[in-house]
Each structure stands twice: as C-alpha cells, then as structure tokens.
Amino acid sequence: MLFSGACNHKKKKTVVDNFSDLIPANIKDSIYLSASNTYSPEKAKLGRYFFYDRRMSVNQAKSCSSCHDPSYSFTDGYRRSIGALGDNVQHNAPALINIVFNKYLTAADSTLHFPEQQINNPMFHCNPVELGWTGNETIITGRLNKDSLYSRQLPLLFPGSRDAFSLKNIQDCITSFVKTILCFNAPYDKYVYNKDSSALSASAIKGMKLFFSDKLHCSNCHAGINFSTPLITDKNGNKEYYQNTGLYNIDCKGGYPANDAGLIELTKQAADMGKYKIPTLRNLAFTAPYLHDGSAPDLATVINMYQYGGRAIATGVNKGDGRKNPFKNPLICGFNITVDEKKDLINFLLSFSDSSVCHNPSFSNPFLIDETRR
C-alpha cells in the first residue's frame, strides 16, 4: 500500500497515521507500507531486540545488525558482507535508512517492494548462507522462545495468532523496527527544508549546482528524499529504477560477472544485463565502499567512473572497457570536471549525511544495556 508522506492531523488517528507522524510534514515523498503488517511502536520495540540478537542465525554467530551496523549507517564497511558460515554474500550491504520511501529494496530484484518480502532473503538464502534459517526454523524459533522477553511479549502483540512465535510475527517485528530508522537532519535538509543558509559550505553550494546541472546529469537518477528515485522514464512513462552504468564489459558484448549479472538474473532479458537499482545517496560519509559490489573504495573513484563514461578494467578476470558497454545508459557519456569542481561535488554529496542516525539510542543495540538477554 502506498501512503502520502505528509501528515493530515485533521483526520481521525489510525495506526498508519501514527507511522506517518514519524515523517516530517514537509517531506512530500510517498511512503510504502505493507498491508500485511500493521505498524505499531510495540512491534518496533521488540523488533529492535530481534534485529540485534545473534540467536537469529543458525550458529548464533550473526544477527541482522552484523551486516547493518548503526555505526556505518546500517551497512558494515565491507565490500560484500559475510554470512553466518563465513561466506561473502552477493552484494554490498545497503543502508537501512528511510527505506519506507523506496519502491524497490534490493540491488537486482524488482519483485520486492516491502521489507516484509525482502527479509526472507537474509533469513533463507542458501547460496550463500546468510542467517541460515532454511531447514532450521524449528531450532532457531525454539531457541528464541526460551527468552522470557520474547515469550512474554509476542503473545501480547499478536493475540489472535494460533502460534504467537510464528515466523511471520518475528519478521513483522523486525521489519517494524527497520522502518523506523529514519533520518532527515543532514546539512542538506537544514539548508533546503529548514532554510538555514549557513548549513552548507560555499564549496558544497558549488557542488549542488554541479549535481543538478545538465553537465553532470546526477539528479536525473538521484532525485527524491533518498536521492534514489529516477526522473528518467521508459517509453511508457515508467520510472527506470534499475540502470547499467558501465561498470563492466568482460566479453566486449556488455557482459557482467557471471555470478552477479544484475537484473537479467531475474528477467532473463538481454537488455537488463548489468542493471542495478539506483542506490540512495544518504549518509555517504558512513557507507563506503560504494556500488552494488563494493568495488569503489571512495567517492572520488565513483565520480571518476562517471567522468570517463564508465569504468575500464585493464587486468584480471573482469578485464574489459565498461565505457563501451552496449547496455549502458546513454546519460553515462562522460563529462569534463576540474579538480576543484570534484572537491565541491564531493562536499555536496557528503552534505546528505546525518550522523545522528548512527548514535540515536532508539536504534542502538539493546543488549548493550541488558546483557542478560544476549
């Protein structure tokens, strides 16, 4: 279900309005909430415990927060995260911030629109294993059921459930918590929404002009509150959330690595080779490395790629000239930018960062306060 992000305080209060109250009234982007999981703050509160609980993995080695650490704006600082059994997962961990504004949630799967759908991936994915729930549901839920907090609270939160400790109820709590991880207090927000002219440096203001210019085209893909909603559309007028940016061209025919080829793995359509979801630009100060595979260590590397119209790799198994990728978006055609302009652009990109989300007690690990439940 899609709801307006703006609040209407004249309406009779509903649970959905309670969630909308978390969104500042000046934010007009639509929010996406699943009808299958009515929001309540009590669910979110318990979900915070599940989110940080290592007992959520088959061998009690990992929790959701292992890959989504608040210190890194709910990423983890790795190129690709590490699952419970020590294997690298397929993609760089996305930041779990402001996800209720995202129409799509994963790098290369356009069928997942809500956290209630996406959460099955880390829990049940087998190749590689992430949390390792497949075939171990009874063991893991039985282990969690022994915790006095969970066994007491779940029946209260889901009084109509035949089994309060069901998988769906646990997932609904976790996703309720994740949806509350919101941040709107970056310097950019203060400058644009609070009309604080001192919030951005002179350099960042120059970078803003570049970002929104026809010279660089950044805002054609990075619009909306999360800077991840594209303005570009297909021939039918539909926004194109998945794009090929010329990162690879390993066979001189547009090929991407076989184990991570993008949206084509789902659609089987040749034109979707190398297409990945446009990522949020929020909190870039805390979420390096960048790109779907974590292959860009810093923002300068990302800008260089766009400056040259794609990425050329000279050696190794992924050798190839992404600048010549036939599936690349035509807007990725390169541009001229000076050293000073690049610094200005980076300063503007960093102005999207809100450090308060990394230190907000409401999002922190509750087990650091109550070690008895860890």
Q: Any chance you could write out the topology, listing elements then pairs?
A:
Blueprint: E1 2-3, H1 15-20, E2 31-32, H2 41-52, H3 64-67, H4 115-118, H5 120-124, H6 137-145, H7 148-157, H8 167-179, H9 187-192, H10 202-211, H11 218-221, E3 242-243, H12 264-267, E4 276-277, H13 299-307, E5 312-313, E6 320-321, H14 339-350, H15 356-359
Antiparallel strand pairs: 1-2, 3-4, 5-6
Helix pairs in contact: 2-8, 10-14
Structure description:
With 374 residues, this protein is mostly helical. It has 2 domains: 196 residues, Cytochrome Bc1 Complex, Chain D, domain 2, CATH 1.10.760; 170 residues, Orthogonal Bundle (Cytochrome Bc1 Complex, Chain D, domain 2). The strands form 3 sheets. Strands 1-2 form a two-stranded antiparallel ribbon. It has a two-stranded antiparallel sheet with strand order 3-4. Helix 10 packs across helix 14. The chain is globular. The chain starts with a strand and ends in a 15-residue tail after the last helix.
Keywords, separated by commas or semicolons:
374 residues; two-stranded antiparallel sheet; Cytochrome Bc1 Complex, Chain D, domain 2; 6 strands; single chain
What's a concise summary of this model?
With 374 residues, this protein is mainly alpha-helical.
- Strand arrangement across the biggest beta sheet: 1-2
Q: Approximately how much helix is present in the residues?
A: 25-40%
Q: How many E strands?
A: 6
The DSSP helix count reads 15
Arithmetic mean of pLDDT: 93
State the CATH class of the largest domain.
Mainly Alpha
Largest sheet: 2 strands, antiparallel
Unreliable sequence segments: 2-17
Tell me which CATH architecture of the largest domain applies here: Orthogonal Bundle
Shape: globular
CA-CA gap between termini:
35 Å
- CATH topology grouping of the largest domain: Cytochrome Bc1 Complex, Chain D, domain 2
Strand content: under 5%
Structural class: mainly alpha
The helix/strand order is EHEHHHHHHHHHHEHEHEEHH
- Please tell me the total number of domains: 2
CATH superfamily of the largest domain: Cytochrome c-like domain
- Compute the gyration radius: what is it? 21 Å
